[in-house]
């Protein structure tokens, strides 16, 4: 038997059952079975007493004698009953289905152990279908007994707990041949680990609770360690091997802009981040950097200044956004900032006409066009650059992995990559998911920003809320009303939005109202956006299309309707649409009276903090890491035992350990590290789905 042996060759399984197990549990090799971890354990050393039973639904073991076996006929239905007695009392045993054989073989009046789930009815306990073992034949194994994740489909066909326990017990006997150590002695000692063989044995059949905990800890550690090691090696490799265009020059484009056209003083965080980026791009190695910064922290300016450095070194840049609106806004903003310079900027999206597109294509190829803003349209093969030196991706999580890879191919020497995300992600997730990127964080808001005040209001408060909005408009401010977008029902969304619009128009009949939703054509969206952004409309009624990036600094109130229907990160993104100017801003979360526990947590979190990182932690606790990354990438954090919410300490610890090891032994060439290297090469390399990212 090896780890690769197909399970049909395991004793007791066979081809039929193997097929079933494969279909239901996706287990096909001995290794898969070893990684088929119990969900809990039962202590079969513990013997309960009939007289002390309290709770039903427990799986327990008792010791005593079986008496009074009786067959009971009730019309067509037959069942078998018996009494079970110990020195403290008596209870019923019941079989709803049984064979003649079972009836005759029941060990009446002998010392037995029975095991099963107990039921309580009128304070009278009974146990259906007990497992029975003669005292004299009882297995002398003191280990805890595993309970495996199961399904009715399997149990019905006889693949019950007992079946899996027997199979795993047999496989565990082979552990000495199957499992080799993969960590160096010094680590096992310093971390006080069980050996790897003991780990697998104790995860299936723990000697006791503390052994289970140790096994569990080591499995989590290994998962995190080799995962981090993979990235560490990749990063080290990248730093030495992956060519990039060095940008050593800070020239007139950058300095001229910085000195003459910068509309505000950069925050210290912006300056620090810019320095980190400059240091990266100086080197002849491709930059791969993640720029994290909450909404409104000023990432766009950092992006622009970075592009100017590329330009100073004779290279083109592109900035990619996930939506047309956002691309347009970046374009408008950048064009405005560069209006007094010679620098040529253009925008390429799906809605750019063929004739204009042709010009853009030409100017990119001859190098006349130096900064291109756009959507996915930028990725098309037809779009060729003369010398693309820098690609910036905004709101990264919406772009798929494959799309990012396309950017790389746009230049012979791949462009530097700066990924910007406004969705702060939890630390543990960042440490895992982005471990091959260097991370810069803008953790400071531009001066003068007042934290947004967030309140939770209900239908009965609506008049009050509207009056408050009116006061704000009178002060010269603008208001957003946002309605949820329920993907299953676009017609319903539309209805929601239209009703909302009508209601708002009636209630604010003396003001102008703009409307924005996803079904509108790009030019219609533009008209609506401009109507609001120019201040002609005081109110914008919208669906979540405005979630990403829209920037109207004069807007000071965000009213989110049916806020209980939004996820946390969405609420946070929406809230970020206000508070972008110097005025005090407000976010009002309108909900119905009845809220689920989860909705209440979300609303409460929003009213308590403006800190995107804190919010993302709560979000991960509520939804799990997979959902946070989005379906496209969730498979990437499919750890078997490691839990990104609860195992933060392990993740941090392993990351530090890996960094320390690679710092002194980057190629893992020291003798004591051969064991890690070999294991990594054999079991992890190539299996690592992440290796294809960025
Ligand atoms: P985000 O990080 O969400 O993309 P933006 O780049 O859109 O944020 O910046 C939000 C607003 O803050 C913009 O109006 C921008 O002009 C302004 N801003 C950016 N940096 C500063 C700064 N250092 N001082 C003052 N305002 C700034
Ligand atoms: Mg932005």
Please specify the SSE layout and strand pairing:
Elements: H1 14-25, H2 30-34, E1 40-42, E2 59-74, E3 77-86, E4 89-95, H3 100-105, E5 112-117, E6 119-121, E7 124-128, E8 131-134, E9 145-147, H4 152-156, H5 161-173, H6 175-178, H7 185-191, H8 196-204, H9 209-241, H10 252-260, H11 268-282, E10 288-293, H12 299-312, E11 316-320, H13 324-337, E12 345-348, H14 354-366, E13 371-374, E14 388-394, H15 401-408, E15 416-421, H16 427-433, E16 438-442, E17 453-458, H17 462-474, E18 478-482, H18 490-507, E19 513-516, H19 522-533, E20 539-542, E21 555-560, H20 568-575, E22 586-591, H21 597-608, H22 612-623, H23 625-629, H24 631-634, H25 648-664, H26 674-684
Parallel strand pairs: 4-7, 10-15, 10-16, 11-13, 11-14, 12-13, 14-15, 17-22, 18-20, 18-21, 19-20, 21-22
Antiparallel strand pairs: 1-9, 2-3, 2-5, 3-4, 5-8, 6-7
Helix pairs in contact: 8-9, 9-25, 10-12, 11-12, 16-25, 21-22
Task: Describe the 3D structure.
- Keywords: ATP-binding, DNA damage, DNA recombination, DNA repair, DNA-binding, Helicase, Hydrolase, Isomerase, Nucleotide-binding.
- It holds the Pfam family Helicase_C.
- It catalyses: ATP + H2O = ADP + phosphate + H(+); Couples ATP hydrolysis with the unwinding of duplex DNA by translocating in the 3'-5' direction.
- By secondary structure, the protein is α/β, with parallel strands linked by helices.
- Among the domains are: 46-141, OB fold (Dihydrolipoamide Acetyltransferase, E2P), CATH 2.40.50; 252-282 and 297-421, P-loop containing nucleotide triphosphate hydrolases (Rossmann fold); 453-609, 3-Layer(aba) Sandwich (Rossmann fold), CATH 3.40.50.
- It has 26 helices and 22 strands.
- The strands form four sheets. A seven-stranded mixed β-sheet has the order 6-7-4-3-2-5-8, with no helix packed on it.
- α9 crosses α25 and α11 runs parallel beside α12 (299-312).
- The longest helix is centred in the first third of the chain and has 33 residues, at 209-241.
- It is globular.
- The structure holds adenosine-5'-diphosphate and magnesium ion.
- Magnesium ion binds next to α12.
- Residues 299-300, 422, 549 line the site of magnesium ion.
């Amino acid at each position: 038997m090896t780890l690769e042996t197909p399970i049909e060759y395991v004793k007791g399984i066979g081809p039929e059952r193997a097929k079933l197990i494969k279909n239901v549990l996706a287990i096909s090799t001995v290794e898969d079975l070893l990684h088929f971890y119990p969900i809990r354990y039962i202590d079969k050393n513990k013997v309960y007493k009939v007289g002390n039973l309290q709770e039903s639904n427990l799986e327990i073991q008792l010791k005593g004698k079986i008496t009074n076996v009786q067959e009971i006929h009730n019309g067509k239905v037959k069942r078998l009953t018996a009494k079970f007695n110990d020195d403290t009392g008596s209870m019923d045993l019941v079989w709803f289905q049984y064979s003649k054989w079972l009836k005759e073989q029941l060990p009446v009046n002998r010392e037995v152990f029975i095991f099963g789930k107990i039921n309580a009815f009128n304070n009278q306990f009974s146990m259906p279908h007990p497992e029975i073992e003669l005292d004299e034949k009882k297995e002398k194994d003191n280990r805890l007994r595993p309970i495996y994740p199961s399904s009715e489909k399997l149990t019905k066909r006889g693949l019950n707990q007992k079946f899996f326990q027997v199979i795993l017990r047999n496989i565990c006997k082979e552990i000495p041949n199957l499992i080799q150590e993969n960590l160096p002695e010094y680590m096992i000692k310093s971390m006080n680990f069980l050996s790897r063989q003991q780990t697998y044995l104790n995860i299936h059949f723990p000697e006791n609770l503390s052994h289970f905990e140790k096994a569990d800890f080591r499995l989590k550690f290994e998962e995190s360690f080799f995962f981090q090691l993979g990235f560490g090696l990749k990063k080290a490799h990248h730093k030495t091997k992956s060519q990039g265009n060095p940008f050593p020059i800070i020239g007139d484009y950058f300095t001229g802009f910085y000195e003459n056209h910068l509309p505000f003083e950069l925050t210290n965080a912006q300056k620090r981040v810019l320095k980190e980026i400059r240091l990266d791009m100086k080197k002849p190695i491709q930059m791969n950097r993640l720029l994290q910064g909450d909404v409104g922290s000023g990432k766009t300016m950092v992006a622009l200044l970075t592009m100017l450095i590329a330009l100073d070194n004779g290279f083109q840049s592109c900035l990619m956004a996930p939506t047309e609106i956002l691309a347009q806004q970046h374009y408008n903003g950048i064009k405005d900032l560069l209006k007094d310079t010679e620098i040529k900027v253009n925008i390429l999206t799906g809605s750019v006409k063929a004739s204009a597109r042709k010009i853009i294509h030409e100017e990119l190829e001859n190098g006349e066009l130096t900064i291109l803003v756009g959507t996915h349209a930028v990725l098309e093969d037809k779009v060729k650059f003369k010398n693309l030196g820098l690609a910036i991706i905004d709101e990264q999580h919406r772009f798929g992995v494959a799309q990012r890879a396309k950017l790389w191919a746009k230049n012979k020497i791949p462009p530097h990559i700066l990924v910007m995300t406004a969705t702060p992600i939890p630390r543990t997730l960042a440490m895992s998911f982005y471990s091959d990127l260097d991370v810069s964080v803008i953790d400071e808001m531009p001066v003068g920003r007042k934290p947004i005040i967030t309140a939770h209001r209900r239908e009965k408060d609506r008049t009050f809320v509207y009056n408050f909005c009116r006061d704000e408009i009178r002060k010269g401010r603008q208001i957003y009303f946002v309605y949820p977008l329920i993907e299953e029902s676009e017609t319903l969304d539309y209805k929601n939005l239209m009703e909302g619009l009508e209601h708002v128009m009636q209630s604010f009949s003396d003001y102008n109202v703009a409307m924005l939703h996803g079904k509108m054509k790009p030019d219609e969206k533009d008209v609506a956006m401009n109507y609001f952004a120019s201040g002609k409309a005081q109110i914008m009624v919208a669906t979540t299309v405005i979630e990403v990036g829209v920037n109207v600094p004069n807007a000071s109130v965000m009213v989110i309707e049916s806020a209980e229907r939004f996820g946390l990160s969405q609420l946070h993104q929406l809230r970020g649409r206000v508070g972008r100017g110097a005025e005090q801003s407000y976010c009002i979360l309108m909900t119905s009276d009845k809220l689920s526990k989860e909705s209440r947590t979300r609303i409460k979190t929003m009213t308590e903090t403006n800190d995107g990182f804190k919010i993302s932690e709560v979000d991960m606790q509520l939804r799990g890491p997979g959902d946070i990354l989005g379906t496209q990438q969730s498979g990437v954090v499919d750890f078997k035992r490691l839990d990104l919410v609860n195992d933060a300490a392990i993740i941090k610890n392993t990351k530090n350990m890996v960094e320390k090891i690679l710092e002194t032994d980057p190629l893992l060439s020291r003798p004591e590290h051969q064991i890690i290297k070999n294991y990594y090469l054999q079991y992890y390399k190539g299996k690592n789905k992440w290796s294809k990212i960025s």
